[in-house]
Amino acid sequence: MGAKENLADGRVEVYNPEFQGVSVPQWEIGKMSQKLKSDYGRVFVAAAICCAAVGLASAPLLAKEAEGGLLEFTKKMVDFGRIAEGERPATTFEFVNKSKADVRIHEVRTDCLCTSVEHSEKPIRPGQNGAIEVTLRSKGRKGEVRSKIVVRYASAGEDYQDVLELRAEVHQEGKLVAEPEAFELETILAETPVKKRFVVKNADTKVKTNVLKVDSPSWLEVRIGKRAHKQKWILSATGTLPDRPGALNEKIIVHTDNKTFPTLTIPVTAEMLAVVVSDPGKAWMEVDPEGAERSITVRIVDKRKRKISKTELARTKAFRELLNSVEIKDGSAPWEKVLIATLSKGLPKKRVLILNTTLKATVAGKEYVVPINLMFIKRRPPKN
Fold first, then answer.
1. Final residue belonging to a domain, choices 211, 244, 273
2. Cis before residue 180, ω within 30 degrees of 0?
3. Cβ contacts of residue 249 below 8 Å, gap of 6+?
4. What is the full DSSP assignment across 169-219?
5. Structural domains counted in the chain
6. CB neighbour list of residue 20: distance below 8 Å, 6 or more residues apart
7. Across the chain, how many H-helices and E-strands are there?
8. Could you tell me where the DSSP H helices lie in the chain?
9. Which helix (H) or strand (E) holds 79?
10. CA 219 to CA 227: how far, in whole Å?
11. In the predicted model, what is the mean pLDDT of residues 324-329?
12. What's the confidence (pLDDT) of residue 345?
C-alpha cells in the first residue's frame, strides 16, 4: 500500500491492490494525521489513511443502516456440524425487542441459494419475542457450507441490520453417482428403440456401498454389468418407448445397502411424438352460410411409413347431425389415408362449429387412436 499527498486539491491518494485506489478527503484525516506527519513521519500517516479508507470502503455494505442491537438474539451463529448431502437441517433464531419502539422486519436476505428463511412481517412490540426460521438445503453440496443471513428492520424511522450465520460440513461418504446423471431423450417418436450406458460409482469411498437391485419402467430393461474396479458398476439400459405421446417423466432407481444414501435416482425424460397422426392436427375452414356444400380434408399418416391397413371413425352425434357425409379414402401412399368431412346442413346460430372425435388406425397389426379436430367458421357478411 502507498499514499501520497496532493496539496493542490487538499486530497490524499491511498493506493491498495484490494481497493484499486481510494481518494480520501484530507479533512477526514483530521488533526491527528497532521500531528503524526510532523512528529513521527509519513509511515504513521499512511496507516491512519488506510484505516479511514477501509472505513469508507466498507460503508456501502451497511446500505446506510446502523448495526443492529435493538433485537437481542439468543444466538447469531449455528453450526450443524457434519451432515450427509441431501439433509435439510433447520434452526430457529429467537430474539426479543429490547428497544422502546415497535420493530418491523422488512427484509431477510441470504448470500446462498442453499438457505431458505421464514419470518413474520408483523410489528414486534417492545419486550415482545420473535423468531426467524432458517433451513439449510444441502442437496448438491459437498465440503464446508457457510451462509450469512442479513436481517434488515426499521424502528422509530431508522433502519438497522443484524447478521446471522449458518455452517455445516457436508459429506457424501458412500453415495453413488451416475455418469451421465440422466437418461434424456429430448424430442423423439414414440415406440422408438433406445439404449443407454451408465457408469455408477461411489462418490466417496471412505464408506463402502453395494448395489442391491435396480428398478426401472416396465418398457426399459436395466442390467448390472461387471464392475470395472471396486465401487464402480456399469448399467446397460435398453428398451422401446411406449405409445404415449407427450411428456415422459420416469426414473431408474438403484437400491444400495447404504443407510444414509439408500437409493440413486436416474431421471428418464423425453418429449414423445405420436407415430400415427392427423395432418393438420386441427383442420378448419371458413364457410358461407348461403353457399353450397363445404368439405374439410384431413390426412392420416404413419410417420414410419408403414401401411395403414384399416381405419374406423367414431361417429359422434354431432357428426351424424351436422355433417352430410364423412368419407375415408386411400392416400397417395400406403401409409396415408384421407378423411373428407362435408358440411351441408348449415351452421348453428353460433359463428363457430367445432367437431371433435377419434379415428382408430390399424398399422402392422396394432391399433392407434388418432384425434380428429374439425372447425367450421361462419363467414361474416360484408359491410355495406
1. 273
2. yes
3. 267, 268, 269
4. EEE-TT-EEEESS-EEEEEEETT-EEEEEEEEEES-TTS---EEEEE--TT
5. 4
6. none
7. 3, 28
8. 26-39, 42-58, 317-322
9. strand 77-84
10. 25
11. 90
12. 67
Domain containing 99 equals: 66-171
Give the HSE-up count for residue 265: Cα atoms under 13 Å, Cβ half-sphere. Answer: 6
Lowest model confidence (mean pLDDT) among 93-102, 212-221, 373-382:
373-382
Nearest to 216 by CA among 252, 244, 189: 252
Lookup: cell for 41: 513521519
Residues 289 and 369 in one domain: yes
Q: Identify whether the C-beta of residue 108 lies closer than 8 Å to the C-beta of residue 132.
A: yes
Q: Are residues 118 and 133 in the same domain?
A: yes
Residue 67: predicted pLDDT: 57
Picking from 45, 62, 79, the residue at the C-terminal end of a domain is 62
Mapped onto helix, strand or coil, the DSSP state of residue 260 is coil
**Closest-CA residue to 59 (of 94, 19, 91):** 19
Quick check: is 194 in a domain? yes
- 95 pairs with which residues across the strands? 73, 130
Mean pLDDT taken over the chain: 81
Does 383 reside within a domain? no
Residue 296 has pLDDT above 50, yes or no: yes
Instruction: Look up cell 458398476; give the residue.
Output: 233
* Grid coordinates given for 95: 430474539
Residue 172 has pLDDT above 90, yes or no: no
What's the distance, Cα to Cα, between the start and end of the chain in Å? Answer: 86
The Cα 89–Cα 373 span in angstroms is: 53
Whether residue 186 is contained in a domain is answered as yes
Q: Which residues fall within 8 angstroms of residue 259, CB to CB, at 6 or more apart? A: none
C-alpha–C-alpha distance, residues 381 and 329, integer Å: 34
Are 353 and 286 contained in the same domain?
A: yes
Tell whether 43 and 76 lie within a shared domain: no
